[in-house]
Design brief:
Order of helices and strands: EEHEEHEHHHHHHHHHHHHH
Radius of gyration: 29 Å
Helix content: 55-70%
Number of helices: 15
Number of strands: 5
Strand order of the largest sheet: 1-5-3-4-2
Shape: elongated
Largest sheet: 5 strands, mixed
């Protein structure tokens, strides 16, 4: 659609009701205001279209932060790219997606809300179609869909920046879903809402500084099922999980170290040992005659001798 560049009084512009960004952090607005003031005005034009109902007025498509700062600073005009007419309702949110993927990504909750609008207006939740429309990866789409299913109070925590979106993603993948699948007798008491509440509280108590620690809960849950022999049977490891879920001050590391750290490390070492002969064989097949092959054979003998010594030292008669 044809466009033109114009200088428009900011009071003649209305915000875009389609903008999924509802909250603007004051610190960022202050930095932008300082930059605009130092530059003598807004340098990057906002994007608008004529208001179909009111002459000489316009509606924003993009640039709400710049427009807000122009109003705050009392600027007489703001540069604007004006398109001849309003964007198609179905394509408006997609157009905004494309603008922000090129210029500046939205924060997490605005992106999630924009994705919801795309899904509703295009009547699809197919990851491939959504990837084509928004430019988001399938992994990003999956994560934002999860966020959209969260209760409002958790979405507000993400919006405010108090809790990162990845916290809820890691919690879902490593605690909520594994527990529902592998410890079915516990999942009624510790459902998704109970677990979210417990781990948010743990975070507030300073007992969960690194959200990657959440990945250590899944091995405890999985090993509890193996130990019990069935998802609905009791395991001694369930007591560690209950302590983790019920006590806000208990850290994941404490429970992990006391329950499965040794066995997980032992399993990893056993897997590496089982792969070792095949790895030596592959390298020996590829090694040329001479020093490379000789060095590799020497390493193999040293490994054999070291393992034999350990076996003799720790074997029980």
């Amino acid at each position: 659609m044809p466009t033109r560049l114009a200088d428009i009084p900011p009071e003649n512009i209305e915000r875009n009701p389609e903008n999924p960004r509802m909250h603007f952090r004051e610190a960022g607005l202050n930095r932008l205001a300082e930059s605009i003031d130092e530059s003598g005005g807004v340098l990057v034009p906002v994007y608008v279209y004529p208001d179909p109902d009111i002459p000489d007025r316009f509606r924003l498509i993009d640039g709400e932060r710049r427009w807000r700062m122009a109003m705050r600073l009392g600027l007489e005009t703001i540069p604007a790219i004006v398109r001849d007419g309003p964007p198609d309702l179905k394509q408006n949110i997609v157009e905004m997606f494309n603008i922000h993927k090129v210029r500046e990504d939205w924060e997490e909750m605005p992106t999630a809300r924009a994705l919801r609008e795309v899904m509703e207006r295009h009547e699809t939740d197919d990851p491939e179609e959504l990837r084509s429309l928004t430019g988001l990866s399938k992994e990003q789409i999956s994560r934002f869909k999860l966020v959209l299913e969260l209760p409002e109070r958790y979405q507000q925590l993400i919006e405010s920046g108090d809790v990162p979106m990845n916290f809820f993603v890691e919690l879902d993948r490593n605690v909520i879903r594994p527990l529902a699948r592998n410890r079915t007798h516990m999942s009624e008491r510790y459902d998704a809402e109970a677990l979210r509440s417990a781990f948010v509280e743990k975070r507030e108590h300073g007992a969960l500084d690194d959200l990657i620690d959440l990945r250590k809960v899944k091995p405890i849950i999985q090993r509890a099922q193996v130990d019990a022999g069935a998802p609905d049977a009791e395991s001694a490891l369930d007591a560690f999980l209950r302590k983790l879920f019920d006590d806000p001050a208990t850290t994941i590391d404490e429970v992990y170290d006391a329950s499965v750290a040794f066995s997980v490390e032992a399993d990893k070492l056993a897997e590496q040992a089982l792969r070792l002969p095949a790895q030596f064989a592959r390298l020996l097949e590829d090694a040329s005659e001479g020093p490379p092959r000789t060095a590799l054979l020497a390493a193999l003998r040293d490994t054999r001798d070291s393992l034999s010594s350990l076996l003799e030292e720790y074997s029980v008669e």
